[in-house]
Each structure stands twice: as C-alpha cells, then as structure tokens.
Write a structure and sequence with these properties.
The complex is a heterodimer of chains A (246) and B (198).
Chain A (H helix, E strand, L loop, with lengths): L17 H22 E2 L5 E5 L2 E5 L5 E6 L5 E4 L8 E9 L8 E9 L5 E9 L3 E6 L6 E5 L9 E4 L14 E8 L5 E5 L8 E2 L2 E4 L7 E6 L3 E6 L6 E9 L2
Antiparallel strand pairs in A: 1-2, 2-3, 3-4, 4-5, 5-6, 6-7, 7-8, 8-9, 9-10, 10-11, 12-18, 13-17, 14-18, 15-18, 16-17
Chain B lengths: L2 E10 L4 E9 L5 E9 L2 H9 L4 H10 L12 H19 L8 H10 L4 H5 L5 H9 L3 H15 L11 H4 L20 E2 L2 E2 L3
Antiparallel strand pairs in B: 1-2, 2-3, 4-5
Helix pairs in contact in B: 1-2, 1-7
The chains are: A mainly beta (246), B alpha+beta (198).
C-alpha cells in the first residue's frame, strides 16, 4: 500500500530493508522540504506565499506589497504603500484586439483599487503601437501615441497642451505662448523666468490688425527674445513656440 | 544705443508678468520705446541664481539682462556673479542712470506722441522701480528653496521634483514605512472582454 508520498517501503518482520527505508525517508524529506520552501517561506524579513498558482509577497508585518497572478491576463500588482492604500501599480499582459486581429499588449499603470479605474501614469505597449500617457480619474488624458494610425506608418499623436508663457525647467524643449504688445513700442523684449540651459530658437508670429507691417526678431538669447516692429501704431499680438536646440 | 531710461512699469495681472517701458535713445538721437516683460518671480530666480540679495542689484540684472551677452548660469556662482556684474556695470556706464530725473508730464507727452497705450502712460505717475519691487514680492523662503535647487543642479545632483528623480528623492535604500495591514479587497473588472483576476 502506497503512503501519501507514493512510496512503498518494504517491511520485513523484525528486519526492515534499510535501503528502502532510507529511500523512503529521503523522498519524504525532499517532498516536505520542497513544499515548505515554495509554500510559505521567509525572504529576509518578509514572506512569500504560493496560493492557487498566484504568488504573494508580504512584509514582515503582513502587508502585501507584491502579487503575481496567473491566468490568461498574467499580471503583477505592486502596492508600494501597502494593499490597504487606495491605489496600486498594475503590470499586466493581455490581448488588446481592436478588430485587427489579436494584439499582444503590455500595460503598466497606476490605478485605483476600487474598480481598476486608471488614475495616474500609464505605459501601454501593444504589437501595433505604444502609448505613454497620464490618465487621471475624472480628468483629461494626456499622451504621446506612437504609430497611432492603423493604416499609415510612423504617425505620432500628442494629446495635451503647453502652459502659456510658463517655464518649468531650464531644459524644457518647448516654450510657447502669446502676448500683446500695445501701441507705441518699437520693440518688445520677452524675458524668460530663468535662462535656458541651451540656445532657444524663437519661432514667432506677429498679428497686426488693419494694415501690413514688417517685423523681425531683432535678437534672442538663452534669457530673452526681442521683436522689432516697423510701426508703433496699434497693438500687436505676438504668438510664439520657441524650441531649445543644441 | 546711447541711453536707456525706465519710464513706466505696469503689472499685467492675468499673465502674472511685469511690463516695463524702456525709453531708448539711439545713436542718431531718435527715441523709441521697448516693452520689457518678465514673470513676477524673475527677481527671485535671479537672486537664487546669482546668490544676490540686494533688490536694486537684482533690478539692474533684469533690466539690463537682454542687453548683455548671456552667461552659463550653472558655472561657479562667484565667477558668474563677477562676469555678470562687470557686464552690467559696463552697460550702465554707457547708457546712464535708468531712473528719469525730470518732469513726468514731459515723459507722458513723449509717450502720447508715439501712441502709447494709456495704461503705460498712467503708470508714469508711479515710481517704475518701486513698482517692480512691489509686484515682484520677493519671498526669502521661496528664494531659499530656489537657491537650494540651483545649487543642487550645479552640483550635478538629481532633482527630486524631476520625473527621473523620484528614486533618489525618496532615498529608497531605506525601507519605507507602510501602514499596518487591515483588510485585502481586490475588485474585478472586465478589461476589453477579458476578466482580470482578483
């Protein structure tokens, strides 16, 4: 009769088979050891649990920080603030079929625990395109979408906007906006909050109602640009989208 | 350019920028007007970058900045201050005092003659330098924060507020404190027809 480990130790009256006994003992130990190691073991001061094909990693205080889920949507979820927090980091692969055949996809996103509602940064990589996005719950999504057209290669779509005349960093790529230069000025100098790290090329347009005037960018540097007008009459609207170059 | 005077300052509240009317006397003695626009926190940034606290020196720096060759602002601060100071002094000596000594009515008349917008003409009645100080609202705490930020950039450190700086900023070598576990509730949702596990 087999025991629970599938072994059949030979027992003889008064004289057990030592070889079989050792073999049986060895298998018992091996089975026990493997079960212990995979099923519930210590990782430094944390805890690793295998349950129903999923792997759960906990801190020593019982806080779940990482779960790996099995299944056709394989997923890793991380809880940097613990699994009682409002949000989680999800990292999962799935079939993102949009009607062009199976589309293997990987998504990394910050989302609410409740309802898996995306609420934060997102990276979505599929066989057909890639998206770097921020999708706040209840707010507008901003993204960079690479290869956005299903029938035309290399199409990129940007969604979002630039803040008017606002410098976040001396190394930001674009600096855009619009302002009015009132009548009476021959030149107008627009100064940045802080000098840019590299040369900034002003791409400027001047709107002047009523009559044709000539204008030019008289000077520009890392800290400002100056526009000269041929006429001081009427106000002008200066629109610009300056680019930092090297 | 033979001379430059600051004749009027207007605070553009919607854009939070200060607009200064500079009266330029050209080499052929013709007079023209330049509008100089800068954000309200410009003096704070200059104070942090140059490590200068004297407001009059900062106003010199912003008024003449567009008239001098730019410097690498991330170089050694003492060297930067020295270079910038020399350039500003040179341009000041060339163009004369920026303040106008004289009848403000004459200034208004000159501004009216070129069709200047009334908001800049009305503002002539105020001290243009005083208006820059008033609207710049230099806050020592904010300057200190900006100064620390620029010092960190000069040292080549990763800036905590930057998208790439989060790991350093949180000092993740240290174990973060986490709330004590209470209850695990992991909801389900249909994701594009595929059910994610709970």
């Amino acid at each position: 009769m087999s025991n629970r480990y599938g072994t059949e130790p030979v027992r003889k009256r008064g004289q057990p088979d030592v070889v079989e006994y050792i073999k049986d003992l060895s298998e018992r130990l091996r089975a026990s050891e493997v079960a212990y190691r995979i099923g519930h073991t210590s990782i430094e001061d944390g805890d690793l649990i295998v349950l129903n094909g999923d792997i759960r990693v906990k801190e020593s205080d019982g806080t779940t920080v990482l779960v790996i889920f099995h299944g056709s949507t394989p997923e890793i979820r991380m809880y940097p603030l613990g699994d009682t927090d409002t949000h989680q980091v999800a990292f999962f692969g799935f079939d993102f079929d949009l009607g062009f055949g199976p589309d293997q996809a990987l998504q990394i996103s910050v989302e609410k625990l409740a309802g898996f509602v995306e609420d934060g940064g997102k990276l979505l990589l599929t066989r057909n395109y890639g998206i770097l996005s921020h999708q706040p719950d209840g707010g507008q999504e901003s993204y960079l979408w690479l290869n956005a057209d299903p029938v035309l290669d290399e199409i990129m779509v940007f969604r979002g906007k630039m803040r008017d005349q606002w410098q976040y960093d001396t190394r930001q790529t674009f600096y855009a906006g619009a302002f009015t230069a009132s009548s009476g000025f021959s030149t107008w100098t627009h100064t940045y909050a802080s000098a840019f790290a590299d040369q900034v090329v002003p791409i400027v347009n001047v709107l002047h109602a009523g009559s044709t005037i000539s204008w030019t960018i008289e000077s520009y540097s890392t800290s400002a640009f100056t526009v000269r007008f041929s006429s001081t009459t009427n106000s002008k609207v200066i629109t610009f989208c300056n680019v930092r170059v090297s | 350019m033979k001379a430059m005077k600051v004749v009027s300052t207007y605070f553009n509240e919607p854009s939070q920028r200060i607009e200064v009317v500079r009266e330029i006397t050209n080499d052929d003695d013709t007079i023209e007007y330049n509008g100089l626009s800068f954000p309200v926190d410009k003096l704070e940034w200059l104070s942090a970058t140059l490590e200068v606290d004297n407001v009059d020196d900062l106003i010199d720096a912003v008024i003449y900045e567009s008239m001098i060759d730019p410097d690498d602002e991330l170089q050694d601060v003492a060297e930067l201050r020295s270079k910038r100071g020399s350039k500003i002094l040179a341009i000041k000596n060339k163009l004369g005092p920026m303040r106008v000594n004289g009848n403000k009515a004459n200034i208004k008349t000159r501004l009216q003659s070129v069709g200047m917008h009334f908001k800049y003409i009305d503002a002539v009645d105020n001290d243009p330098i005083g208006e820059i100080k008033k609207h710049s609202k230099i806050d020592p705490d904010r300057v200190a924060e900006k100064r620390e930020l620029i010092r960190a950039v000069r040292r080549g450190e990763v800036i905590p507020a930057s998208p790439s700086g989060s790991r350093d900023a949180k000092n993740l070598d240290k174990k973060p404190n986490r709330p004590v576990k209470q209850e695990v509730k992991l909801p389900t949702i249909n994701l594009h027809g595929r059910k994610r596990v709970t």
